[in-house]
Amino acid sequence: MADIYVASDRRYERMVYNRVGNSGLKFPAVSLGFWHNFGTKDNYDNMKAMCRTAFDCGITQFDLANNYGPVYGAAEANLGRILKEDFMPYRDELVLTTKAGYDMWDGPYGDWGSKKYLVASLDQSLKRMGVDYVDIFYHHRMDPETPLEETMEALAQIVRSGKALYAGISNYNQEYTRRAIAIMKELHCPLIVNQRSYSIFNREIEQDGVKTYCKEAGMGIIAFSPLAQGLLTDKYLYGIPADSRIARDPRFLKESALTPERLEQIRALNEIAAQRGQTLAQMALSWILKDNEVCSVLIGASRPEQIAENVKIVEKCEFSVEELNKIEEISN
């Protein structure tokens, strides 16, 4: 007999939902990212279990990109299968997002920010996921060669076509964000969100001013890599586990990142987390949401239990001045 998924009746009780900038859309405080662990080499049953756990915990946003895998397109294809088997009855309760902007296919038309690439890529993404539209379509990175007007017009056309409900940008600095917002305002198609990397160990959105600017401009921010690819967990305190990201897939986090100085920082942060009654991962996620300038934090997961554990952060996003000062002192 087929395993039929029925979502928990209490799925919204454990989550907080934050408005995305000045838009009418709300994000769950915690969203599920498909950057890792949804590729061809990963276990499908585990993927499905993670999605079920996420939704049962109130995580309504699944975040993808055209080239998430490996191989490219695999995460979208796997989500498409999961949607068909489990989530189509709940489609209107989900925020599905995807992106284009990095290399996707061979030749001159499968990369960066041209209108040809973005429109074609989204059509491919919709087919892989088996849906008629995504809720947000992002341009994935700044393109120094394609006129920004062309890229933004492509996003506006995609929204007008109904293939995406909202437009967003990812990895845009303050200058590009300002310009993009101005162009889209003229096109009467607001950009509602900028997706940027942000963690206790990565303060670039503070340093380039985009975090504060987005709030002033009425644009939401969703943060990815909040755990610094796993460094902001207790996973590496006593060595490198065989099932860790460094051991399994060192493309984005290498053993050389675990310097003695970094390990000392991780241990000190872990002590603060323990005093707060949290794991280090939970504290690092809570820290992202501490000031209401970030509307959602994207988590990656390799097991359903990690998702259930990390959702608990919505109960404890407040920090004392002393705690914040200690975190600053340790991380700088």
Task: Please tell me about this protein's structure.
This protein has helices at residues 44-56, 74-87, 115-129, 148-161, 174-186, 204-207, 210-217, 245-248, 260-276, 280-288, 304-310, 321-331; strands at 17-19, 26-28, 30-33, 61-63, 95-100, 134-139, 164-170, 191-197, 220-224, 296-299. A hairpin with a 6-residue loop joins β1 and β2 (26-28). The longest helix is centred in the last third of the chain and has 17 residues, at 260-276. The chain has 332 residues and is α/β, with parallel strands linked by helices. The protein is built from 12 helices and 10 strands. The model has no long low-confidence stretch (mean pLDDT 95). α4 packs across α5 (174-186). The N and C termini lie far apart (56 Å). The strands form 2 sheets. Strands 3-4-5-6-7-8-9-10 form an 8-stranded parallel barrel, surrounded by 4 helices. Strands 1-2 form a two-stranded antiparallel sheet.
Summary, kept brief:
The chain is α/β, with parallel strands linked by helices and 332 residues long. It has helices at residues 44-56, 74-87, 115-129, 148-161, 174-186, 204-207, 210-217, 245-248, 260-276, 280-288, 304-310, 321-331; strands at 17-19, 26-28, 30-33, 61-63, 95-100, 134-139, 164-170, 191-197, 220-224, 296-299.
Unreliable parts:
none
Kindly, what is the distance between the CA atoms of the first and last residues, rounded to a whole number of angstroms? 56 Å
Q: How many β strands by DSSP?
A: 10
- The string of secondary-structure elements, in order, is EEEHEHEHEHEHEHHEHHHEHH
Measured as a percent range, the helix fraction is: 25-40%
Instruction: Give me the Rg, rounded.
Output: 19 Å
Mean pLDDT: 95
**Strand residues, percent:** 5-15%
Largest sheet: 8 strands, parallel, barrel
Overall morphology: globular
